[in-house]
Amino acid sequence: MIAIYTLWLRQLKRYFRSKSRIIGSLGQPLLFLVALGFGLGPVFQKAGQGNYLEFLAPGIVAMSILFLSVFNGMEVIWDRQFGFLKETMVAPVPRWQIMMGRTLGGATVAVMQGILVLVLSMLVGFSPVYSFWMIALSLVFMFLIALMFTAFGTAIASVLEDMHGFQLIMNFLVMPIFFLSGALFPLAGLPKVVGIITAIDPLSYGVDGLRGTLVGAAHYGLMPDFLILAVITAVFIGFGSYFFSKIQV
Amino acid sequence: MPEENIIEIKNLVKKFKDLTAVNDISFNVKKGEVFAFLGPNGAGKTTTIKILTTLLKPTSGNIRINGFDPAYQQNQVRESFGIVFQDPSLDDELTAYENLDMHGMLYKVKVKDRKERIEDLLKFVELWDRRKDLVKHFSGGMKRRLEIARGFIHHPKILFLDEPTIGLDPQTRNHIWNYLKKMNKEEGITVFLTTHYMEEADKVCDKIAIIDHGKIIAQGSSEELKTLTKKATLEEAFLSLTGSEIREETVKNQAMSGMARGWRR
Q: Are B107 and A92 in contact (CB < 8 Å)?
């Protein structure tokens, strides 16, 4: 257990030390909130869907968690390149514990970033449902999204040799996961193919869970969201620790 | 006397597809010895160290590290040794102290012992004043000294060092050998190292094994090797045993020894 804690702590220290990274990764969500929230707001309203910023903000929180989680998971590649990975690989600790420590740490950091983005969106004008339990529940959803995609990033990074594949993963996996998750548009009344794709996208359930807890408008329902997320997260953690334990340094 | 040997290797073979990196080697290292593994580039030194330190599985052969088999009793073996890799393996974003503390936690060294040990070792390698500095601001020599300190934290029985003095100035090299000799004497830690600096091996090591093309071609004390080859220095003895042609460690060769590209800087 102390190994898990050690590596969790390491991720947190690295996060708090890179102030520029914390501030830098607030830029993109802010741009989305302002440009899309206010830009598309009038059209959304006219279409009879209500306030777009209220709809969009949970999606942007999910987005920032997704990006940072995948990135944190993929830090395995950096550690491999800078040699630190070897230090953990010869430690008398089972590999899965190393992976869990890193993943929990990366996920914790991503949730903190998600909370920052939530506060930011409130500054821009988002007003979530003020209920203690719903906010607490939204944190659970944030953590599930973070855990799922940190494990996902770790699994991918474990089989990649260097950073060259990073762009490929971002553009062909992470971006589609974001854009097809219903973070930006309502899931009701979609063309059939898009509807199926969004239903396969695991982030859809995360966005939906956040929307359900923060705005009170879930498409699938909070319970299905939670169960599906929990199962997929467990599967990704399984894959992540399997591939991580197969790394040869 | 089997209990005297802390490392026992019998008929070790490691094959990567069609390449045999380590070809049936056998040797023993006695407890408390300083043992050097010499050989040209690509001879199989790093592969052997990786097998002994549980990072690679052998194709066949018998290995005992501190009485344990690295292929099956990984955790017992890992607790028995400390290691300084060929390339740096510190977390640059953490301080010197944090790097050592994290190592102590991973090796389950108790808090009180950990604190004392880290202070002692940081003073020992003359980095105590820099303990709160981020490692990314350290020079190559300072990083190497820090890694040596780290290798000792959990009171290992053996310290492995893969080319510990490569690329360092003579002053730092001298200091590093002094640290190693001192720890070897005071704590009885067995030191297993590879190096290309023959005078250093000559000065420091009790026993030397020369490996080439995956086979051990000679072993003994420095004096024995010089007598065997009738040469005046260890370097001449080494060249007469391994030939003077230049070895290229090919990319193919490297990739096959399981090394990620881009590590060698």
A: yes
Residues A22-70: tens digit of each pLDDT: 998 999 999 999 999 999 999 999 988 889 999 999 999 999 999 999 9
Q: Structural domain boundaries of chain A?
A: 2-245
d(CA B29, CA B205): 12
Q: Which of B82, B63, B48, B55 is nearest to B7 (CA)?
A: B63
Looking at the complex, does the CB of residue B263 fall below 8 Å from at least one CB of chain A?
yes
Residue ranges of domains in chain B = 2-256
Residues A63-102: tens digit of each pLDDT: 999 999 999 999 999 999 889 999 999 999 999 999 999 9
Where does the pLDDT of residue B30 fall: very low under 50, low under 70, confident under 90, or very high at 90 and above?
very high
Q: In this complex, is the C-beta atom of B239 within 8 Å of any C-beta atom belonging to chain A?
A: no
Distance, CA of A45 to CA of A33 (rounded, Å): 16
Q: Which residues of B touch A249 (CB under 8 A)?
A: 55, 258, 260
- Say which of A9, A89, A92 has its CB closest to residue B55: A89
Give pTM, 2 decimals: 0.90
CB contact under 8 A, A81 and B56: no
Q: Assign B265 a pLDDT band (cuts: 50, 70, 90).
A: very low
Instruction: Tell the burial category of A159 from Cβ atoms under 10 Å away from its Cβ (0-12, 13-18, 19+).
Output: exposed
Longest dimension (CA), chain A: 62
Q: Is B206 an interface residue toward A (CB < 8 Å)?
A: no
The rounded mean pLDDT for chain B is 89
- Chain B CB contacts of A89 under 8 Å are 55
The percent of residues above 70 in pLDDT, for chain A, comes to: 100
pLDDT of residue B258: 41
Select B2-256's CATH number: 3.40.50.300, 3.40.50.1100, 1.10.10.10, 2.120.10.30.
Answer: 3.40.50.300
Which residues does chain B have within 8 Å of residue A17's beta carbon, measured at their own beta carbons?
A: 93
The residue of chain A nearest to residue B110, with distances taken between CA atoms, is: A2
Structure tokens at A69: 């989680």
Enter the ipTM: 0.89
Is B106 within 8 Å of A161 when comparing Cβ atoms?
no
Quick one: three-class SS letters along A75-111? HHHHHHHCCHHHHHHCCCCCHHHHHHHHHHHHHHHHH
